[in-house]
Amino acid sequence: MARVTTKYVCNSCGYTSAKPLGRCPNCQAWNSFEEEVPSVTGGKARGGGAGGYGGISGGKLTPLSTVGRREEPRTSSGILEMDRVLGGGLVAGGVTLIGGEPGIGKSTLLLQVADSVARAGGTVLYVAGEESLEQIRLRADRLGVTADIQLTRDTRAEHIAALMSEHRPALCIVDSIQTVTVEGEGAPGGVAQVRDSTSTLTRAAKETGTATVLVGHVTKDGTVAGPKVMEHIVDTTVFLETVGAFRLLRSVKNRFGQAGELGVFEMRGEGLIAVENPSAAFLAERPVGVPGSVVAATVDGQRPMLLEVQALASKTPYPNARRVVVGLDPRRVDVVLAVLERRLDLTLGGLDVYVNLAGGLKVPDPGLDLAVALAVYSAVVGRALPQNVAVFGEVGLAGEVRSTVASQRRAEEAGRAGYKRLIVPPGLAGHAGVKSVEEAVGVVWQTAKA
User: Fold this and answer.
1) Where are the alpha helices (DSSP H) in 308-406?
2) pLDDT tens across 10-41, in order?
3) Are strands 7-10 and 33-36 parallel, antiparallel or unpaired?
4) How far apart are CA 159 and CA 365, in angstroms?
5) Other CB atoms closer than 10 Å to residue 168's CB: what's the count?
6) Closest Cα to residue 151, out of 171, 181, 165?
7) Following DSSP, what letter does each residue of 381-428 receive, concatenated?
8) Considering the entire predicted model, what is its pTM?
9) Of 180, 178, 173, 129, which is closest to residue 147 (Cα–Cα)?
10) Which of 202, 411, 382, 383 is nearest to 306 (CA)?
11) Do 208 and 164 contact (CB within 8 A), yes or no?
12) What is the DSSP letter of 436?
């Protein structure tokens, strides 16, 4: 009789160990190990039979040149921002994993998508693992959902796969994957259950051509709960997060499109409403003619946006001046402040300096360096920038302004928003760039006098 060996698996990253550990050596998660007993399988002992691999022969090989080219058919989700994040829509047979904090709007967004797909003539299967059918009906009434969506409370993976095979829906939504179980694999939500349930549903989606969306719980550090292998099984992984008054849908993996795409939504009574012009939304409350305010062209993921960089300088009552940074990389801001003191002789030693990226976003973009430099300089000298100026560029230790990624897209976004004067690095076609921070300061306020 084969010996059954117990192993312990990290429910965050899938790392295995012969004994439970307090902290995972792979992902550094605490108290994340769960016991898993592998199933005993029969068969010949390893190395038995003919040949070095037990008599097993290799399968057929296919040359790449003989493989046909095929574009996977897509179905529009009915929401422009979500189609952008997914790379053009829901892919037939593709599996998407969506994560986010509880109550952020995952179920609301997916019910809106289900309504749009069903109205377009597609069959939608909604697996309700966490809510009753009556709760879903109440949400549907609030959102104005009128399409006939097929609901089920059966969360056994084999039964869901059978429903997909029998009805072949255009879209299957599983809310959530942590409630789905596989026969004989332990408690729901465990490492083995989540991994094997995801594999079963993914296989069913590929066989039936059903676009499948799995809702995943998140841990306290914001990652999808469950083994990391679950994110490798699915085709697309997206996260829904809260930023101020907005919801951001961000793709971190996409086999059918470009990862890093960003969709912006606003939560209202009728559901999540797409924000088609995020730049205008984030700059809607920007004060005009106030020192320390600069419009910066940035790129979050793959999406260019205009954001406001704010700076405030005040005399410090403390022996050591304070440096408070919100939404930006504090180390990069410290570098910019050192460049201002050294290269522009701007005295900051006795001043508390506060730098903020308005709107609640956190963007670690080196292209915001020049905007930070001009905002701090403006706040210290008390002179506001002109209204029609937008800025981007990386600042080096010598005070030079360096080029940034996606410079052309940043400039185009600024032009669409009505900002005609750009303070940018050299080399951008159609724009006279600045070579140093000192030159940028001179250009800005010469423009202001004009």
Assistant:
1) 330-343, 369-381
2) 877 778 888 888 888 888 888 888 887 665 54
3) antiparallel
4) 47
5) 14
6) 171
7) HT-PPPTTEEE--EE-TTSBEE--TTHHHHHHHHHHTT--EEE--TT-
8) 0.83
9) 173
10) 411
11) yes
12) B
Across the beta sheet with 16-17, what order do the strands follow? 16-17, 7-10, 33-36
Residue type, 318: Y
Q: How far apart are CA 73 and CA 155, in angstroms?
A: 28
Contact 195, 227 (CB under 8 A): yes
Q: Using alpha carbons only, how large is the chain's radius of gyration in Å?
A: 27
How far apart are alpha carbons 92 and 72 in whole angstroms? 7
Maximum alpha-carbon separation in the chain: 90
Q: What is the pLDDT of residues 224-254, one digit of tens each?
A: 766 677 888 999 999 999 988 899 999 999 9
Residue with tokens 């841990």: 219
pLDDT, tens digit (0-9, with 9 covering 90-100), for 132-153: 999 999 999 999 999 999 999 9
Strands (E), 149-192: 150-152, 171-175
Nearby residues of 399 by Cβ (< 8 Å), 6 or more positions away? 339, 342, 343, 344, 436, 437, 438
